[in-house]
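Appendix B, record 7
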Amino acid sequence: MALLRLIFNIAWFILGGFVMGLAWWLAGLLCFISIIGIPFGRACFVIGEMAFWPFGQQNISRRALQGVDDIGTGPLGMVGNIVWFLLFGIWLAIGHITHALACFVTIIGIPFGIQHLKLALLSLTPIGQTITAKA
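C-alpha cells (predicted):
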C-alpha cells in the first residue's frame, strides 16, 4: 500500500500537484505580509505540503480530533474562515476544481480529481482543520 501511495504522489506532483502546492505557498507568503495574517500563512504552508503529496493524508476538524474547542473551532474561527474565503479560499478552490475537471477526463485521472476536490473543500474553510496521516 505504501508503494502505491508513493507512485500516486509522484504522479500527482508531476501532473499538477506542484502548481497547486506553489499556489498555497504563494497565498501563505501573502498572508505573512501582515501580523494578523501569520496564522493563516502558517496554515497555508501546512496545507500546501498536503497539496504537494495528498495521498495518505487527510484533513480533520481539530474539534473532532481533540474533543474540545479552541480558538480556530469557535466563533473566531468562523470569522477567520469568512475572511479567508473572500481573500484566498475562492481562488484556491477554483484552481483545484479546474484541475479536478481536467483529471476527470480520463479514468486514470479520477483518483487525482478526487484529491483535488478534497483540497477544494479544504481551501474554502481551512481554519479549525488539521492534517493527519490516514490510518
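Remarks on this record: Residues 2-31 form the longest helix (30 residues). The two ends are 12 Å apart (CA to CA).
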